[in-house]
Design brief:
With 415 residues, the protein is an alpha/beta fold. The chain folds into 4 domains: 163 residues, 3-Layer(aba) Sandwich (Molybdenum Cofactor Biosythetic Enzyme, Chain A); 42 residues, Molybdopterin biosynthesis moea protein, domain 2 (Alpha-Beta Complex); 89 residues, Molybdopterin biosynthesis moeA protein, domain 3 (Beta Complex); 74 residues, MoeA, C-terminal, domain IV (Beta-clip). Helices cover 18% and strands 30% of the residues. The chain has a 6-stranded mixed beta sheet with strand order 7-4-6-5-9-8. It has a 6-stranded mixed beta sheet with strand order 16-13-17-21-20-18, sandwiched between helices. α4 packs parallel to α7. The longest helix has 19 residues. It is elongated. The two termini are 35 Å apart. Bound molecules: ligand LQZAQKY5, molybdate ion and magnesium ion. Ligand LQZAQKY5 binds next to α4 and α7.
């Protein structure tokens, strides 16, 4: 049985990012948040567009004010008033200054701004009460933040508020982004029903479909929900074939262990799949099937274990990075672990890498891991609610004592 890290390496090697020549959507800027930029953006504009003032004050010639002081102020004649948005009209001559405001264009002839607080005004004269520390002080120079024609944003980044603002400033009303990876999801099991059905003895609601749909969306994918399938090879083959033909990733849950009704692996084989993983040295999540098909643009198939905690943990550990890598993200798709103190005692039998769900909370400014109360059976879904992290105990680690450090994988949103 492969280790978790070997499994991760095998899976991520199977995944290639979507080709950015064929998988582009054009979206409006305000609809582009959380999307992945598919082509680099180069702006024909410099930032700042012009030399402009960083302060409300006076635009001056440095040579006129370099020896100014409270006792011996330079006295300059104010020849122009330049609010932000106005084009300056005059060229400032020796002995002159322009009244200027933050963001306003520097007038010709000036190179330095004196902030208002360091001046005294008498009608159309300004007294400079302190010398600037250097010439160019409080001037934001044209192109000092960004030079026209160079790369403004690279392809492969996720667009958040900051990037959307940059793109607005660069006058990009529409953008090329990667299409979202399509992820087909279905659940297998005779015991499963939709939540609107009365529960007959032995039946449970198919909660995995809900969990996986939301997780796919959170990870940047587009879920394609294929419903519940009976533990019946014919029905399973039909749904699996449909998912394989219509998605970049197929996620099934259930039917991957060794039971008489666990058909997923055998149907994958009959469909010509190459099975790369059949089980992983982890708890929960040991029965995990990963397969690909010899056809071009073949999707990657994840047969997730049916137990709800096992389905979620294997999603977070393996499927989420897969969706992120496929979605065109150039980097940052690998899971990130942080080392924190555990508030609680954590135990494992040490035979498989253990993932223990709980919360990462900040106490006195320091992150600590709190194990979720209640049963840690992989069949228990209830105490997964309000968790946001998984503590990881490597193989052979049987105990983490309170206040000892532990590696933690953050999952979902941190609230
Ligand atoms: N003899 C063995 N039995 C089991 C082994 C083993 O190694 N030897 N592994 C156990 C482990 S670990 C897990 S995890 C499960 C995985 O089982 P399957 O993937 O085959 O899933 P099912 O048998 O279909 O269901 C297991 C469990 O999960 C519930 N389930 C299934 N689908 C859903 C769903 N969509 N929503 C909510 N709950 C679901 C199902 O009712 C079962 O209780 O196998 C162990 N057995
Ligand atoms: O993978 Mo199983 O999750 O230990 O019940
Ligand atoms: Mg089973």
């Amino acid at each position: 049985m492969p280790s978790v890290s070997d499994t991760e390496a095998i899976i991520l090697n199977l995944v290639q990012p979507l080709d950015n020549r064929q998988n582009i959507e054009i979206v409006d800027l305000l609809a582009a948040d959380s999307r992945i930029l598919a082509t680099p953006v180069i702006s024909p504009l410099d930032f700042p567009h012009w030399d402009n003032s960083a302060m409300d004050g006076y635009a001056v010639r440095y040579e006129d004010v370099q020896h100014s002081s409270n006792e011996q102020p330079a006295i300059l004649e104010i020849v122009e008033d330049i609010p932000a948005g106005n084009q300056p009209k005059s060229t400032i001559q020796p002995g002159q200054a322009a009244r200027i405001f933050t963001g306003a264009v520097m007038p010709a002839g000036t190179d330095t701004v004196i902030m208002q607080e360091k001046t005294r005004r008498e009608e159309n004269r300004v007294f400079i009460l302190a010398a600037p520390t250097n010439s160019q002080e409080f001037v934001r120079h044209k192109a000092s933040f960004y030079q026209a024609g160079t790369q403004l944003l690279p392809a492969g980044i996720r667009l958040n508020a900051q990037e959307i603002a940059v793109l607005a400033a660069a006058k990009c009303p529409q953008l090329n982004v990667y299409r979202r990876p399509r992820v087909a999801i279905f659940s297998s099991g005779n015991e499963l029903v939709t939540l609107d059905r009365p529960l007959q003895p032995g039946q449970i609601v198919d909660s995995n479909q809900y969990a996986l749909a939301v997780l796919v969306r959170e990870s940047g994918g587009e879920p394609l929900l294929l419903g519940i399938v009976k533990d019946d090879p014919v029905a399973l083959e039909k749904v699996m074939s449909h998912g394989i033909a219509n998605a970049d990733i197929v996620l099934s849950s259930g039917g991957v262990s060794v039971g008489d009704y666990d058909y997923v692996d055998q149907i994958l084989e009959s469909l010509g799949a190459k099975i790369h993983i059949r089980a992983v040295e982890m708890r929960p999540g040991k029965p995990l099937t990963v397969a690909t098909f010899p056809t071009q643009n073949s999707p990657i198939y994840f047969g997730l274990p049916g137990n709800p905690a096992a389905a979620l943990v294997t999603f977070w550990r393996f499927v989420q990075p897969t969706i992120k890598k496929l979605s065109g993200l150039a980097e940052g798709w690998q899971p990130v672990f942080v080392k924190v103190r555990s508030h609680d005692e954590l135990r494992s039998d040490g035979k498989r890498e253990a993932y223990i769900w709980g919360r990462l909370d900040i106490v006195d400014g320091v992150y600590q891991f709190y194990k979720a109360g209640g049963s840690h059976s992989s069949g228990n879904l209830i105490n997964l609610a309000q968790t946001n992290a998984l503590a990881v105990l490597p193989i052979d680690t049987t105990l983490i004592s309170p206040q000892e450090e532990v590696q933690v994988l953050q999952v979902g949103f941190n609230n």
